[in-house]
Amino acid sequence: MPDAEMAALLQAVLDEVCADVPAWDTTTRERVAIRLRATARQDRCSLQDLKRAGRDALTRAPTMWR
């Protein structure tokens, strides 16, 4: 998938997954974005894989908080 398409897909998934995250909560959006990029780098680029990874990033605290 070309970079522009992947960037658009990642942005769309980020926006969808974070739809209920307050605009001021940039830390959460960043955590989700990092997880989405990591998932895409593992060649798991399907819409379902990306949404699952994004939702997982929302529900799981970062490792340092456990």
Number of domains: 1
Question: Helical segment tally?
Answer: 3
Output the structural class: mainly alpha
- Contiguous low-pLDDT stretches (5 residues minimum) are none
How much helix, percentage-wise, in residues? 55-70%
Largest sheet: none
What order do the SSEs take from the amino end to the carboxyl end, as H and E? HHH
Tally of strands = 0
Distance between the termini: 35 Å
Report the average pLDDT across residues.
89
Shape: globular
Q: Rg to the nearest angstrom?
A: 12 Å
Percent strand: under 5%
Description of the molecule:
By secondary structure, this protein is mainly alpha-helical. It has one domain (3-65). Helices cover 67% and strands 0% of the residues. It has three helices and no strands. It has helices at 3-17, 26-41, 47-59. The mean pLDDT is 89.
Please render the helix and strand layout as text.
Layout lengths: L2 H15 L8 H16 L5 H13 L7
Which terms summarize this structure?
single chain; 66 residues; mainly alpha; 3 helices; globular
